[in-house]
């Protein structure tokens, strides 16, 4: 299934948006599934608005990778193609966990992000680089 990760930075690139997932308590950037027929960058912006009530715009595609298969508690199985976008917040929105998928939403200094897995830590590093090319996992 096609999915997006939205690595949202403030305009000064000093803070990143993160949400704490309700299902496992992990801190992550905003993630979500692309709706049928939806443009991927628009999906990233929509997910940020739905999950954290932060307005943003997508600046560039950072990374494309296939994620490992996932089995959900109800037995459903899925595998995602992740398109990670660097997004910039429009102004100084105060994030809130808006849709029940997360218990917290807040800004973190980019030099002191919340504990995140290797994938999200890598994507934050890519967002802070000045390179414009997309990275492809090999």
From TrEMBL:
Q: Which InterPro entries match?
A: NUDIX_hydrolase-like_dom_sf, NUDIX_hydrolase_dom
UniProt domain Nudix hydrolase: residue ranges: 1-130
The cofactor required is: Mg(2+)
Q: Provide the alphabetized UniProt keywords.
A: Hydrolase
Recorded GO molecular functions are: hydrolase activity
Name the UniProt record assigns to this protein: ADP-ribose pyrophosphatase
**Origin organism of this chain?**
Brachybacterium vulturis
């Amino acid at each position: 299934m096609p999915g997006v990760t939205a690595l949202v930075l403030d305009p000064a690139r000093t803070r990143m948006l993160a949400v704490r997932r309700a299902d496992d308590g992990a801190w992550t950037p905003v993630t979500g599934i692309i709706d049928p027929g939806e443009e991927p960058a628009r999906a990233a912006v929509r997910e940020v608005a739905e999950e954290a009530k932060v307005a943003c715009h997508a600046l560039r595609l950072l990374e494309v990778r296939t994620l490992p298969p996932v089995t959900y508690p109800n037995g459903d199985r899925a595998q995602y193609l992740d398109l990670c976008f660097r997004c910039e917040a429009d102004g100084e929105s105060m994030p809130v966990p808006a849709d029940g998928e997360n218990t917290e939403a807040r800004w973190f200094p980019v030099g002191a992000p919340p504990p995140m897995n290797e994938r999200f830590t890598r994507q934050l590093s890519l967002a802070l680089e000045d390179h414009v090319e997309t990275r492809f996992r090999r």
